[in-house]
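Attaching the record inline, Q. Sequence:
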Amino acid sequence: MKRFLKFLIISIIIVAGAFGVFKFSNQYRMSILKNNISWSVAYKNCKDSIAFDRDENKNTYIAYANYIKVIKEDGREEVLLKDKSLKIENIMFNDNKLYFISEANLWKYDLEGKDLELILGNIPCAGKYIDRNLIIKDSKLLLSIGTATNSGVASYDNNYSSNEIPYDKSSIDITLNKFNYGENKTGAFMPYGNSSEEGQKIKAQNLANACVVQVNLDDNKTSLYASGIRNIKGWDLDSEGNLLGIVGGMDNTGERPINRDFDYLYKIEKGEWYGWPDFSGGDPISSPRFKGENTVAPIIANPPNKIVSAPIYQYSDVGVIKYLAIDKEGKILDKNTKIYFDSKKNIISEINTDSIICDLLKLKDESKINGIRYSGGDIYILDSGIGCIYKLQSDNLKLAFNLPKSIWIFVGVLLVTLICLMIFKLYPKNIKKRDNSL
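Structure, as predicted:
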């Protein structure tokens, strides 16, 4: 009876342990939607993180609302910077320094000297489409600044008092047409409730909306890189150094609603004006495809150009495509394939150089993707909902062999325990048989 109870207790422990292993591993499980790729959990303990980046030494920097930590190559973690006054939105590593955006400020943190320096202040930070992103191109830092409004006109928002509703600042000198919108007759690029006059001049501001700003890191001086870009949801450089970005289309909401717009993949070039708020996807806003009850009229009387660049690709929905990483070397997918997140379908997808889309990974319902990065030939995906960073890789190893190391250790201990139990169980019987034979 004692032997039976002992065996029962051990069996219960083994079953409970196995269930725990299954539950732990299932926490990260995703469905692979394309052949010849797989994934693994590169890092854990990232729940509620905001953004991340990696350096050439395989250190991973993870930003939270008010602090930044590093996970080193050997797995050790260290908090680098913590300040309750921060509200971090994005992070980027370059030349042993971390750059990050917090509300209206761009900061630089020197990893060697442990110094924190303000690079820029008074960056527009209010509004529904105010995405800001950072990237290094040609040794210069590029900062993208999204828009405060959907299509250039401030609309009532009960999150703000009427005199504090965000409105857009222009990055170029413009002249307005006569149009005002809504019951309060609000003009474009004007505070809510303020009307504009025909021919009214709007002066350019150094740090404005719907643009990309170039920052010289030697002296922190800024210049306008590109303008008329509603909001960049993610960007990366391809193998030839071209800057590609996902640009959000306009919604059918607000005082100046835009019908049938989409998200786009654009090549973003220096000195170009891409047309917002009077163009989208290369088409003028007066095009029949944007028409609702009435044709939408342009609000800028003196556009920099009458024809604007068309996108590389037009998606089939609006406000759902986010983040971007490019497989520059083609180690995982075809060379220069773009990887992005489709928030509507909750999947990681790719678009190759022939503009063919393929779904890669189906995420869990609890997933919350907050970034995709290319680093050292691999693609890393931050899932702050699950609390980990996935690594997308070629299918040299199957999913079953990509469980976290802790699970493999547990499985090994479990197998050794089972073998010992079997030996222990059989050993007394062998002794008894040998004694009986004597």
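The longest helix spans residues 405-437. Confidence is low (pLDDT under 50) at residues 18-25, 397-404.

More tomorrow.
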